[in-house]
Predict the 3D structure of the following.
Amino acid sequence: MSEKLISKIPEGTLSEKWTKHKAQIRVVSPANKRKLEVIVVGTGLGGASAAAALGELGYNVKVFCISDSPRRAHSIAAQGGINAAKNYPNDNDSVYRLFYDTIKGGDYRSREANVYRLAEVSNLIIDQCVAQGVPFAREYGGLLDNRSFGGSQVSRTFYARGQTGQQLLLGAYAALNRQIELGSVKSYVRHEMLDLVMIDGEAKGILARNLVTGEIERHGAHAVVIATGGYGNVFFLSTNAMNSNGSAAWQCYKKGAFFGNPSFAQIHPTCIPVHGEQQSKLTLMSESLRNDGRIWVPKKMEDVVKLREKKIKASQIPEEDRDYYLERRYPAFGNLVPRDVASRAAKERCDAGFGVNETGLAVFLDFKTAIERLGKKVIEERYGNLFQMYEKITDVNPYDEPMMIYPAIHYTMGGLWVDYNLQTTIPGLYAIGEANFSDHGGNRLGASALMQGLADGYFILPYTIGDYLAGKIQVKKTDTNHPAFEEAEKNIKERLDKLFNIKGKQPVDHFHKKLGHIMWDYVGMARNEAGLKRAIEEIRALREEFWKDLFVPGENNEFNQELEKAVRVADFLEMGELMAMDALTRKESCGGHFREEMQTEEGETLRDDENYMYVSTWEYTGYGKEPIKHKEPLQYEFIKIATRNYKD
Amino acid sequence: MDFTLKVWRQKSAKDKGRFATYKVQNISPDTSFLEMMDILNDQLVREGADPVSVEKGCKSEGPVAFDHDCREGICGMCSLYINGRAHGPDDDITTCQLHMRKFKDGETITIEPWRSAGMPVIKDLVVDRQALDKILQAGGYVSVNTGGIPDANTIPIPRDDAEESMDAAACVGCGACIATCKNGSAMLFVAARVSSLALLPQGKVEAARRAKAMVARMDDLGFGACTNTRACEMECPKDISVAHIARLNREFLKAKIKD
């Protein structure tokens, strides 16, 4: 184990750790906070909440986003809800149960202490959001309503129709706006971080490109927080927004921050299927739909054939000829099994030939039973906007005919490695939300991403970063004329020039799509040794082709979206290789990481706890060189390790 | 399907701008409008990369710049005036949710940026919407700090109020209401936020102050006045009602009377 991999997990029993830790870490006085600067990159739930909370505390904050407003960050698209252990429905939920479900859902590949803390602060988030005016769904008595999500047998998910992420982000964005008005936070929109600047081994600032003018700007600080989300777009087609990318985190990795569990990507079972080669992205249909929707394919192959030939409609297939395969295979959890399990089950049926559309890559999500039981009005209240969204895309009315869905890349559990303080292996560099690796292990449960983003941003980072900054109160503002900034700027300019100077024939998307195909075929829902080795070779070859045959039009000193894409795809072409390497060296199946060599007779994941109960963390050693893999062993002191069972 | 596209090209804010005409072919009706734009841009980039056509004097203007991100109708990043309508010829959607099946084969489609004094063009179809952030910064929040908040269920809120608040909170901040308004007014945008918060007990405390501050900021930033044409409501992709403007006016009057 590298001496840098110190998780700093506090001593004591699980429920005491965070309380004790908070008591022991240092704080910064209000007078000193005014002297300290913090850069936050990204304005999703993690970044916006962190920037707002740090501003409220009195730090000088600079916040950066690539869009035209902080509110565009992709947290906005989260639909279903946010978990918290309030136990309002009186169904015997508790902090411990939320913690346990999350560890189990992650297939025992996350840190106990971090996950317990997440469950512990979950309740504060709901209080905070309500105080901000987030219009959560309510019962007639005026109290908050809850619904169920996958991987849990209690109802602990708070929601605002199918727009929970939007409402939570608007809450955090509002808190951020208040700080911007008060002058504690300065906002930089349409700015993209292109490099991390380090002085004497510590994070001291960033270089950002002004996306409107093309100018490279230097920004110094006492600490830098990365909140730029995940790297799911390495697959080209994903549920991520078009501009979501992993470049900020990747620059940090190349500056020495270790990358944790890069191969852990989540495939969401309920997305609208791919329609053709021209498709630019995939649209998610919220997991909340599995509360009332039932997933099935026909039992008889003749019905499948007729469906594909459009000779019959799904609604014409009688009940007894439908295979509700999740209810059949997992009676205890039924349609609400975790995402990785539901995705693989869909793939299993489609591989067996039962896919219901022309491509054979789709299953049904049906509301017939729910509409009969509850009436159309109730279903409309619960999911109206999702049904509308589905109809606009597919031209099919889901009140009459079942939705067609198929798994797609949705979230990355992997990310920058962080300790208990959310600090990376670089002092002064923090990573929060999806950008870090910390809480979800091999698979994230639904409605937990919003919880983690806000937990990190509102209630964890503002405390833990104080411990670092307390040691910096005598340190002057970072001088952006320092040679480290000079050099970083020179390197960036060379890199951008290099992209323009290739003057090849192919647009960026050509390479991105090709990369996506390699990733989906070999590093997607099912992985094996031969395929992963092949993926690594193909990615390397594609990268070479990219640097020979790319064409970037226009110039650097202007608004240039092709250039933006080129910078990101250049990084994706490196990231994809690391993901494949990580998947190759984890010869077990766990959560969303399914190695075909390692499965039970029933096709479930087969973990190898003896050899792989660790976080794989990767250290960069230079372009084209093999990175070094370090292991952070996972110790389970409080939970009894078991095989994940959603059957009974 | 084949289309002729008349697209607004403008190099920068200072440039005058003009329409350019392009053709796209073999577009599937299931393709989204922005995917069709991707196809156009792929063509334009390839043209610029082709040494033969460049030698022949072809000066490709490069791809068309347009804003987009989530492509599922929620981030509010996409815009576009398509055939004279904000977000194009379909109701209750953003441009990214528009599909080519809504057009006729062979049709000529005119594509323009939002046009409003408050939202100047940055390049081609991309406009600067920072004014919207600035309006919200003036007061579009409940002034609470993080932490020290009582349990969420200590404030019961009538279900209908929460639902109506949610109706207004659905605003994605795209700016279609402003682009559509003949006066370039941002009233529906401001009203959505003011009304959403005023409907909740948490937001009531500073409702009047909020209304006053946000309206003043809107005026300062050069947005026009509301003359009740209701065009904003017609084109709002989230179907936000002008009834919220009435609530904004009430809160605004309350504040003014107190002055």
Notes: Chain A touches chain B through 84 residues (CB under 8 Å). The mean pLDDT of chain A is 96.
